[in-house]
Amino acid sequence: TRMAAAASYIKSSAVAPGGGHLAFITSTDFTGLHDLKLNLITLPQGDVQTLTPLRSAAAESGPEPSPGDPAFEAVRAIVDLPSLAWSPDGRKLAFIGAQDGPSADLYVYSLDDGSIAQLTDGPSQAYDPSWSPDGKNIVQLGADQFGTGAGYSMAGVWAARADGSAVVSLYKPDSGDEVILGWTAPDTFAVYSFDVNCSYRNFRLFNIETRSETVLWKDYFTSAALDPASGRLRDFATDDAPQA
């Protein structure tokens, strides 16, 4: 069954926990610069609806942006990086959009009433939203520019209340990217840093309430995995140690 127009490029998608809904982003060109939209499919019926454009009318009608321009970096945040995340109960969708200004920000869509709320607003480009296990908070990363492969110009990491009541600045990274591996508790996520020269380092737990961190492995490593059911570290590999 065809569920999206043939003329559209599908840039990314995310299935709600338990199924029933599929969110996906489309554009009329491969780069995502034109007619970028967030869509929703209801399963198994296959009913499709467009939820919102993801770029402002001013951006659509303006000159073509180039790498380094905020408008171009906003598109990259939406189509080249993780930008869709369903809440643990599958009733809300966190997504990244730039429909209200030149930068990419964090929004949340509610299946229950069809509302869309903007949670963050700032000059940096939001990306990679991550829900806390209790569905109360969404952590987002932010970068001023995404560069050309040598790491990002990181602006910060923020936690937004899913009900729109508050946004808290957590920390400003000293890395070329931050990777949120998962959550070990409703207030604590596992995260590590990326450097272009030596890859991953500084694997740690970060508490969003106290804004404190517990370093698990300071040096460089190759891979790590977290059990989503228990919130425990299940696999960890370094260059000088076997997997644990």
Detailed description of the structure:
The protein has helices at residues 57-61, 70-79, and strands at residues 9-15, 21-27, 37-42, 47-53, 84-86, 92-97, 105-110, 116-118, 125-131, 137-145, 153-161, 167-171, 177-185, 188-195, 199-207, 212-221, 223-227, 232-237. The mean pLDDT is 90. Strand 1 (9-15) and strand 2 (21-27) form a beta hairpin. The protein is mainly beta and 244 residues long. The radius of gyration is 18 Å and the shape is globular. The chain contains 2 helices and 18 strands. The strands form 5 sheets. The chain has a 4-stranded antiparallel β-sheet with strand order 1-2-3-4, with no helix packed on it. A 4-stranded antiparallel β-sheet has the order 5-6-7-8. A 4-stranded antiparallel β-sheet has the order 9-10-11-12. Helices cover 6% and strands 50% of the residues.
Write the H/E string, N to C.
EEEEHHEEEEEEEEEEEEEE
What is the beta-strand fraction?
over 45%
- Taking pLDDT < 50 over at least 5 consecutive residues as the criterion, the unreliable ranges are none
Annotation, overall tally of beta strands: 18
Q: Report strand order across the widest sheet.
A: 1-2-3-4
Shape: globular
Tally of individual helices: 2
Helical residue percent?
under 10%
Average per-residue pLDDT, rounded, comes to: 90
Q: Give the structural class.
A: mainly beta
Cα radius of gyration in angstroms: 18 Å
Largest sheet: 4 strands, antiparallel
Q: Could you tell me how far the N terminus lies from the C terminus, measured between alpha carbons in angstroms?
A: 44 Å
